[in-house]
Amino acid sequence: MTDGDAAAFTHLGPTVREALSDRGFSTPTAPQRLAIPPLADGENTLVIAPTGSGKTETAMLPVFDDIVSARREARRTGELGGDDGDSGTSSDEETDGFRALYVTPLRALNRDMLDRLEWWGDELDVSVDVRHGDTTQYQRSKQAENPPDVLITTPETIQAMLTGERLRDALADLSHIVVDEVHELAASKRGAQLSIAMERLVELAGPVQRIGLSATVGDPAAVGQFLTGGRPCEIREIDVGSNVDVTVREPTVTDEDRDLAGKLMTEVTTASHVRLIRDIVAENESTLVFVNTRQTAEALGSRFRELDLPIGVHHGSLSKSARIEVEDDFKAGELDALLCTSSMELGIDVGRVDHVVQYQSPRQVARLLQRIGRAGHRMDEVSSGTIVTTRADDTFEAIAIARRARQGQVEDAGIHEGSLDVVANQVPAIVHSAGDTFVDDAYEIVSRAYPFRDLTEETFRDVLSELHRNRIVWFDEAEDRIETSGSTWQYVYANLSMIPDEETYEVHDIASGGQIGTLDERFVVNFASPGEIFIQRGEMWRIAEVDDDEGVVKVSPIEDPAGEVPSWIGQEIPVPYDVAQEVGEIRTVAEPQFAGGADEDAVARELETRYPSDRETLSSALSQLERQIDAEHAMPTTDRIVLERQGRDVVVNACLGHKTNETLGRVLSALLGQKSGSSIGLETDPYRIELEVPTSIATSDVVAILEETDPGHVETIVELGLKNSDALAFRLAQVSGKFGALKRWDGSARLSNDRLLAALEDTPMYAEAVREVFHEDLDPDAAAGVLESIQSDVITVETVRGRTSIGTGGHSSGKELLAPDNADASIIQTVRDRIRDDRVILLCTHCTEWLSRTKVRRVPEQPECPECGSTRIASLNPWADEVVDAVRAEEKSDEQREQTERAFHAASLVQSHGKQAVIAMAARGVGPHNAARIINKLREDEDEFYRDILRQERQYARTQSFWD
């Protein structure tokens, strides 16, 4: 470190240095030493450092210094009233505009920043204020009349500010833009929108200094370019990995855990996790416990509540007041720990944190560093954390991520390139603010923003044409000009945010009639059907009814705390290709050792020298690999893919990460479906592609696709497969809203998936929806590279008979252990009781005269017709009267013939399997075809039969159309 870096504060003026001395800042922190010199020189700068290391002061001290210096210079030259020594305001200063914007992605950060920056403002006589969606009209008016020097705000509020004439005048004085958590914004459409907004601010104010504050990312240069719009950017980065001490532990079950399991009425393995986290919290004064989903936070929170432990729950679905309350309680020491999701990743001030627990693999290196980095920071001390793992995949993944974190091998931010709905969003905003605008001028502003540097003018004009068709703007092609239309202002104010609009459903307790919370639309359409169970406010609820018209989900409480948490887990954090490959490398190292006769302990001893874990944890995970070798099954590694099959289930074991496996899975599903004429079941995780194929598909057919498919066709095959998918339709609805095609603000009715996809194909909206699916969920380039490696023998493909130890380690990968696929006894009993109380229609398909409406529990073991004695009895849904009419009709329409055929199929099942068939077909979404599969599966006990029914019901709930 140079003397200049060590004396960073000497780059600041006397007023700021005096304030530093008054506050006791005698020694700059590491980011301050590195970044204050270029910042004080006015350079665009990206500061990369952990949360709590003084990043905010690093950015703002030079900004405050510039504001103070500029004011002093203005007084010296007579541009402002007052004498040289007076730092007070005068009436002349009221015409000054905003000097700096501090942009944060969360309103909660606004609150923290205001608390931190107001002290500096008072000390330096620099006015500081905050503006966001909750700011009162009175405060907004005051800010327009007398703008503060520094305004703390959000990306969306900047959009609103750019619409006001007086505020735009005030923004013309802008000198600095500070973007906090810039890595988070760079990876989102909110950030893409902000990048254009910053160029619009340049149009008003001229060049401004841009300062970015970021967690560690793998591509700092790209994030810097995102920040500056391709202009020069100084990067000042703290090596976070060397200051992180992480241990990976999987608890072994103890006698105490068995006692705890009885007390909590939960599984022993879950009890062991609760016990280990409890013990870690007890060893430290203040601990953050990060989990990957809000459901897990609620589920663990309910367990700790049962134990009366002072541990709070914090996630984005809680009300603002509830979040503030637990933040304040934690900060005051009234809570020993906070169970939190990504809501606590972004620098919300909760005071001193001694230790961080990550429950289950953090999935990504960047996420681990961001979370563990919240601990410590008293003058560059080490941040300590523990990853608590739950199974073999979890452990191998976690140790790979922990090692990569120490080495600084971090993922790229994942910048959204060329989001066309953001372009569609910003063009009306530009025209509304600036008036009639030439196409070239608007294109120049948009394409200066880094994510849109490659946007072609042709594509830009396609977007303009679409906006013109939707009457959002007027595109005068003859004059090459964009003008406002009657709908422009309405569109702009309804679309200040790029966060997708989703309806919320109120959750009402049937017993009390009161509202207990809300659920978002995506949760309801994917998961919420009668009988499903979820947690809200730390309590279990069973869904009784979903009223889409009123937007209400009616529920009843469940007393049994062992009830499961939702199987729906929201957007899964994707495990990157490189992390999955390292898991493959660990297997590569272990394979010859086990084949040579080494035991788990010996292999664990060798791994322990390279990975931050204990021998017991590593041995537990390695037992999965030892069983694979003992069974003489090939080991899936970095250069070997292993196919296994049992019945209709095919598993492609491949260490390729979420996105690559999802892409390959879609290729296999599409081509096998084309070959068989049947739909192919598909489920993926970072290490497996699980397929359910018809019996006509041979294992060799799967191998042939991997060995013969042209890698250049991957993207086309996947895109064709997306055409009728709910995932694409859901995104298309959101994108088309930003283009004004659905005009969501006027209450237009929803379109069906098919109509939406058909209506918008060959439009920029469709292209953007496809681009977004690829960006978020898929990696066609990596998948094509895998096919090339297979076809050039760099990767071998081997097949094995039956299921393997590694292959059966799936299903739960990425899902919470607290929501196991194998539901416990209480849940199985719930499913059994529900189905037995369901009503069915029994119809004799032989004489067609006899019909009975009854509950499943009253159906005899082998139903037969009392009229004719036939056992060909169809079991139908209680509302299937049209099927009864179809069976009895003498002259049938095409639809009635199909209904009659299904009824005869159902009757054949009942004739062969009796009441068991009635039970299976009474379940939700289980028709004759799926019922036959469930019935014909070999199983050890009746519980397994009901587990298979439950899995099928969940699958049905997940794949229902978003708009029926």
Task: Describe the structure in your own words.
It comes from Halovivax ruber (strain DSM 18193 / JCM 13892 / XH-70). Residues 275-421 form the Helicase C-terminal domain. One of its GO terms (biological process) is DNA repair. Residues 81-95 have a biased composition (Acidic residues). Residues 75-96 are annotated as: Disordered. The longest helix is centred in the N-terminal third of the chain and has 22 residues, at 55-76. Among the domains are: 3-239, Rossmann fold (3-Layer(aba) Sandwich), CATH 3.40.50; 242-406, Rossmann fold, CATH 3.40.50.300; 436-494, no CATH class; 504-557, no CATH class; 825-959, no CATH class. It has 38 helices and 29 strands. By secondary structure, it is of the alpha/beta class. The strands form 6 sheets. It has a 7-stranded parallel beta sheet with strand order 3-4-2-5-6-1-7, with helices on both faces. A hairpin with a 4-residue loop joins strand 20 and strand 21 (552-557). Residues 1-5, 82-94, 561-570, 744-750, 811-824 and 958-964 have low confidence and may be disordered.
Classification by helices and strands: alpha/beta
Measured as a percent range, the helix fraction is 40-55%
State mean pLDDT (0 to 100 scale). 85
Major sheet attributes: 7 strands, parallel
What general form does the structure show?
globular
CATH class group of the domain at 3-239: Alpha Beta
CATH topology of the domain at 3-239: Rossmann fold
Tell me the fraction of residues in β-strands, as a range.
Answer: 5-15%
Q: Superfamily at the CATH H level of the domain at 3-239? A: P-loop containing nucleotide triphosphate hydrolases
| Total strands | 29
Which second-level CATH architecture of the domain at 3-239 applies? 3-Layer(aba) Sandwich
Strand order of the biggest β-sheet = 3-4-2-5-6-1-7
- What is the CA-CA span between the terminal residues? 64 Å
What radius of gyration results from the CA coordinates? Answer: 31 Å
Number of helices: 38
Spans of at least 5 consecutive residues whose pLDDT stays below 50 are: 1-5, 82-94, 561-570, 744-750, 811-824, 958-964
Domain Helicase ATP-binding: 36-235
GO molecular function, one term: ATP hydrolysis activity
Protein name: Lhr-like helicase
Family: Belongs to the Lhr helicase family. Lhr-Core subfamily.
